[in-house]
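Dear Dr. K.,

Following up on our conversation at the group meeting, I've run the structure prediction for Signal recognition particle subunit SRP68 from Podospora pseudoanserina. I'm pasting the input sequence below exactly as I used it, so you can double-check it against your construct before we proceed with anything downstream. Let me know if the numbering doesn't match what you have in your notebook.
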Amino acid sequence: MSKISPTPVSVLTPLPVTSWARASTQITTPATSTTGTAGMDITKFVVSHREKALLYGDYSTYHTSLSKKILNCRKKLNIATKKRGTFHPRNQVTAEQVAEDHDYIHLQLLTAERTWADAMAVKAAHSVETKGIGGKTRSHIVSRLEKGARTAEQLAEVLTQTASGASSIDILEARAYAALLRGAALFEKQHWEPCLKSYSVDRIIYSALSTSAKNDIFKDLLSETIDPSIRYAAYQAQIPRTQPIAEIALKYFQHAGPELAAHIEKQNPAVLQHGDADAKQGAGGAPATLTWRGREVKIEDAAIAIAWAAVGAEKAKLADKLSSAGSLAPRELAGAYDDILVTSQDAVDATKQAIDELKSEGVPQSDSRMQSLQITRTAVNFEMISWRIGRNRALIGQDDGARLNFGAPSKKKKKQEQEQEQAEEALEQKGRDLTPGRQIAKLKEKVVLYDGILQSVESIKELPGVANDQELSAQLEATSQYFTALKCLAISRSHAIAGNTVNALALVKHALDQCTAALPALSGSDDGKPAPRNIQVTSQHAGLLRDILGGELQRSRALVEIHSLNKSASASQTGGAGKPLSSQLFNYPTGGVDLNNIVTYPPQLEPIPVKPLFLDVAWNYIEYPAKQQQQQQQQQQRPAAAVQDKSKGTKKEPEPEAKPQKRGWFGFGR
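The predicted structure tokens came back this morning:
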């Protein structure tokens, strides 16, 4: 184990600018004379001065500014040494002086801060050296920090006296500030056990004050300064990482004494029992194991255990809120998921941090600790994404948006059936009153939410171990198909509103195919109780969607058929414009009958078909009775004409032989 101390978080890293911004809005420059029993705000005074100076400069600039402020403060108190005057040793501040003027407190704080700034300036100047901080430099840093700690401890001792008029909060803040400087000095000396004792006092005090004073400055000090310092000191002291920080702080706080414990008990007694500000969270205890998909793994990291316990608590709170709230608007229902999303994200971050720490230590993937953390990572990520999907489903509305509702009632509805029916009728009327553009915009919002859900499902498929779980993979695929069907349904409705009935029919058919494919893989049904929505989709949800899609499919087919008929009717009306009704009796008048154009009057000469071709050809082959009589008469007349010509003595030339008669219109026949 390396004995080289890194840069101590507690003494070198300033608070973020956002913390200073919150503090500066609440702190004003101290007046020339501040008396009375008003709050001294020691922590705000120190934090604001640090952040204001370090925002525009470094520790040397802060040290210079503190020297000027100390001189001005002494002049206000009329205790400054005059020019060319004899220096007199300064007496310690008394409780009576503090009660008379709070500037004596500010003088002590500024003096302690100047020694801290001096130590940090020296450390920052030597931190860039490759050899590190040498022995003499480290001794100088430690001496400066110890001097500041002694000044702060003297102030805390004065405030504990009754004559000072300090409140319980003022005493706790003074003790915490003194312990903060003392812990920084011990951190530099690498005395880890005493360092843990000092920082434990800080953590217990600030945990109690963060709940009573409701101030974010205390929470920032805990999360960004004190907790990392305790964790590193515990690591150097060979304390297992599985032990929570709150438990470590409570263990090392026992030496602080009953007097300090009495002041803390006035603010929050639960802190002395559980070591954390949230007594309810600590009372339940952090879980030791985590079970997911039939696998039980041991939670070895304390931060993960605490975060996972918080997720369980928030889950119970969400269920109680939904069961007792009745009917809520989609936005109000989605807002109830914020707390559980935050806690689940904390669990994900804690797991990732634990994995990164093991990787930095060179632990291989085959190690049992790494395997347990990978399973934990999959479980907490699945939980977080599941609640994210549930929030999107809450925003979409009832039945996951399967029913065509373009809005939601803004007020809570009573449980009577009559009022629910009236609300549904009003909701449908509201949807009908919306313009087509507004309806399409509402559907686009739902499509965006469906896309977010589908992306979340895809991110779950990429988690470690999910691809090897065939049952889970099948459920995720069915869930993806279910929400794809809902997305296609929303898009088809927008096409139907825009008049694109063919596109709407194709999308509804695709949605029905997706829903039908997803139904066998989904199992379970709702028990009727209002439960928080998450990634779980039951067969009841898919069955309802399938029934709705079946009706939408028939409706879309009817709309396409009507559109086709109207299109053909309009085409026929356009092509037959000007024709009378008598010439269009073979067409049904879908567009109506023009009674002013029944027949053409006066009539016009028009060619009409009379004798088809096959009748003309048949004339050559059919023996009609009239045709036979005509041929017999012609044969009888031929001899009589020949006798008459002979009697007259005329010579008649022989008749030419009869040529074959042409058949048909074109001279050829059968």
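Two things stood out to me. The chain is about 65% helix and 0% strand. Confidence is low (pLDDT under 50) at residues 1-37, 279-284, 408-417.

Best regards,
J.T.
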